[in-house]
Amino acid sequence: MQILYLHSGAHPANVVPPEARLDAQGHSVFLAPVGEPVPVRALSDVGAVIIESDNGDAFDACRELRRLSDIPILMIGGQAKDEVHTITALTVGADDFVARPVSDREIDARLRAIRRRVRSTGSCTLTCRTHEAGGTPASGTVVIEQSGLSIDPTTRSVSLDGDPVLLTTTETGLLLALAARRGVPQSRDSLLRQAWGHDYLGRSRIVDNAVQRLRSKIDTPKWHHVHSVRGYGYVLR
């Protein structure tokens, strides 16, 4: 896999540089410093981004990357077992967060897990239409169309009243999970498992934060698509 690696500075002389460590895992690495303009052209050539830093520049870089693209992002920080850093990373658009020390094999495994989740949600097939649209969808067809909201799971594209909506990878996965069982309440743990993976089970605030971001992008004064189910989770209707 080709990886864009945003780092906070030079590594100590006795530490093997990240590009060498990841090369050993079969990846090709392009290095760039955190805090400088995001190299947008590079995004079309890479399969994932790693952001490694202990300061706010990392979160700013992640937020900017997510604004530009839905590319998978893994953040690596120095705050071991710090829930605030984990939640902040996921809130600004990271798909996963891990604290140092972390082995090269774990980084490799997490990157591959993110890619699997992206492929899985991207290839998800929905066969539902709202009653307003009428008709019966053909087998293997799309799409959910609901009160101006349209989702194409094949292309992972979402539009609202005909205008494109830019969602993060996890926001798209969350919306697809809700849409796959539209009208059926789903627990927070179920949504965590579908959109983030088993590593995040029990962290319900992550779902709540993502739903809040999702609502800000797809809700209108007239239509509210994602509804809370008190003490349980959420439902799309």
Automatic annotation (TrEMBL):
Q: OmpR/PhoB-type domain location, by residue?
A: 141-237
- The Response regulatory domain is annotated at 1-115
Tell me which Gene Ontology terms the entry assigns under biological process: regulation of DNA-templated transcription
Output the SUPFAM superfamilies linked to this UniProt entry: C-terminal effector domain of the bipartite response regulators, CheY-like
The family database entries (CDD domains) matched by this protein are listed as: trans_reg_C
Q: Name one GO molecular function term.
A: phosphorelay response regulator activity
- Classification via Gene3D superfamilies: 3.40.50.2300, Winged helix-like DNA-binding domain superfamily/Winged helix DNA-binding domain (1.10.10.10)
One of this protein's Pfam families, by short name?
Answer: Trans_reg_C
Residues recorded as bearing 4-aspartylphosphate in the entry? D45
Q: Give the PROSITE patterns listed for this entry.
A: OMPR_PHOB, RESPONSE_REGULATORY
Name of this protein: Two component transcriptional regulator, winged helix family
**What is the originating organism of this protein?**
Tsukamurella paurometabola (strain ATCC 8368 / DSM 20162 / CCUG 35730 / CIP 100753 / JCM 10117 / KCTC 9821 / NBRC 16120 / NCIMB 702349 / NCTC 13040)
